[in-house]
């Protein structure tokens, strides 16, 4: 059985497309078999909703009278990077408010803009002959800003390590609050609904793939930072952090339901983002990969009290075990909890299915594939000569 994206798009236009979520297709394949399921299903939709720290927004404010070349820029007192042009700025999700690290940052500014609120823009400049103005203090919103789009260097991790803590004190991390003496385990993945676990070798996902991003439409822009392929696999899926995507999308089509600021006590700020990716069923192998279940997907457990980049996994747990709420670790029953929302992931996959079935959302073929062989380097203290 073979089909093309063009053929699937024609079925979408004709109203004949068959779409299932990655959750629904598991039982369908179990009852009907891969061969029959591949003939019947055209698209499988995926979804995830969780913290994606490596996110941010490019904004163009338009020119003031007289013009200013913004050098130092803040939005609601959160610094934004202005070293790209006169009135362009990039605000990172994890940037914290000046002189106040109580839990407000770039992610909150992004959510407020998407919610239709006004934010305070302050900028200063040395002034030049062509940009004589030296300061401005005003309010902006998506109604006044020219371009406003998320550009996220690292989203949708293919898999991610669960966290625990062997020390005798509580740790506050990007994996949440980790209690002492293996008091709990946290994890962050939608498992069987997670986009890149349903296409583990990225056969259908590449540069230019159209996606559900924050409630609107986005695209895969490039490989994500820290993208790597040289990881251990089981049932065809990686057993730890591997591939990820750089994504881009217009903020004006997004919803605060799927773009939410997070404050993590003792750590900082992050952005919870909803992403869904449609998987075109081009053949039986693509379908087989989407039928993988939480029982077949494993996350490594890392001890965050070991302050090293080379922490070895204590154990691997399936997402079925992690989602059960309790697992056994070193003879002790330990509570588990998720930092990502499976309910939201399901809603995203279902919403994407509805958009495809209605003809609102057509699929795209990648204009280029993402790397098939990539390892990740490390940062070392080097001399100038050693660095080249």
Topology:
Layout: H1 5-14, E1 19-21, H2 24-32, H3 34-40, E2 43-45, E3 48-51, E4 56-60, E5 72-75, E6 78-80, E7 88-92, H4 106-114, E8 119-124, E9 135-140, E10 148-155, E11 162-164, E12 171-173, E13 176-178, E14 184-187, E15 210-213, E16 216-223, E17 233-234, E18 237-238, E19 245-250, E20 259-264, E21 268-276, E22 278-280, H5 284-290, E23 298-303, E24 315-318, H6 319-323, E25 326-329, E26 332-338, H7 342-357
Parallel strand pairs: 1-2, 11-23, 14-26
Antiparallel strand pairs: 2-22, 3-21, 4-7, 4-10, 5-6, 5-8, 8-9, 10-19, 12-13, 15-16, 15-21, 16-19, 17-18, 20-21, 23-24, 25-26
Helix pairs in contact: 2-3
Characterization of this structure:
The protein is of the alpha+beta class. The chain folds into 2 domains: 5-52 and 151-357, no CATH class; 62-145, no CATH class. Helix content is 16%, strand content 31%. It has 7 helices and 26 strands. The protein has helices at 5-14, 24-32, 34-40, 106-114, 284-290, 319-323, 342-357; strands at 19-21, 43-45, 48-51, 56-60, 72-75, 78-80, 88-92, 119-124, 135-140, 148-155, 162-164, 171-173, 176-178, 184-187, 210-213, 216-223, 233-234, 237-238, 245-250, 259-264, 268-276, 278-280, 298-303, 315-318, 326-329, 332-338. Strands 3, 4, 7, 10, 15, 16, 19, 20 and 21 form a 9-stranded antiparallel β-sheet that branches. It starts with a helix and ends in a 31-residue tail after the last helix. The mean pLDDT is 97.
């Amino acid at each position: 059985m073979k089909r093309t994206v063009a053929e699937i798009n024609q079925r979408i236009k004709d109203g004949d497309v068959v779409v299932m979520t990655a959750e629904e297709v598991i039982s369908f394949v179990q009852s009907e078999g891969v061969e029959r399921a591949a003939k019947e299903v055209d698209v499988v939709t995926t979804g995830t909703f969780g913290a994606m720290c490596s996110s941010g927004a490019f904004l163009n404010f338009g020119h003031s009278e007289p013009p200013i070349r913004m050098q130092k820029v803040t939005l609601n007192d959160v610094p934004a990077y202005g070293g790209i042009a006169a009135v362009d700025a990039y605000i990172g999700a994890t940037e914290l408010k000046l002189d106040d690290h109580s839990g407000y940052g770039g992610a909150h500014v992004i959510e407020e803009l998407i919610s239709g609120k006004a934010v305070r823009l302050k900028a200063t400049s040395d002034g030049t002959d062509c940009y004589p103005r030296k300061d401005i203090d005003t309010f902006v919103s998506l109604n006044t800003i020219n371009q406003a789009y998320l550009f996220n260097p690292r989203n949708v991790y293919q898999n991610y390590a669960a966290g625990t803590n062997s020390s005798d004190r509580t740790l506050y991390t990007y994996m949440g609050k980790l209690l002492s003496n293996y008091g709990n385990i946290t994890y962050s993945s939608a498992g069987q609904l997670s986009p890149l676990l349903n296409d583990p070798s990225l056969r259908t996902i590449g540069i230019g793939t159209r996606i559900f991003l924050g409630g609107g439409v986005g695209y895969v822009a490039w490989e994500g930072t820290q993208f790597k392929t040289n990881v251990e696999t089981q049932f065809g899926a990686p057993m730890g952090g591997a591939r990820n995507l750089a994504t881009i999308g217009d903020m004006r089509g997004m919803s605060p339901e799927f773009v939410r600021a997070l404050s993590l006590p003792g750590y900082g700020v992050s952005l919870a983002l909803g992403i869904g990716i449609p998987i075109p069923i081009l053949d039986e192998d693509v379908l087989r990969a989407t039928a993988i279940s939480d029982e077949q997907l494993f996350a490594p457990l890392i001890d965050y009290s070991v302050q090293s980049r080379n922490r070895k996994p204590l154990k691997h747990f399936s997402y079925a075990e992690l989602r059960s709420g309790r697992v056994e670790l070193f003879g002790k029953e330990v509570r588990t909890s998720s930092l990502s929302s499976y309910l939201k992931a399901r809603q995203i996959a279902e919403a994407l299915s509805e958009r495809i079935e209605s003809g609102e959302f057509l699929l795209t073929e990648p204009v280029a594939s993402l790397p098939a062989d990539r390892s990740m380097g490390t940062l070392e203290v080097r001399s100038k000569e050693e660095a080249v």
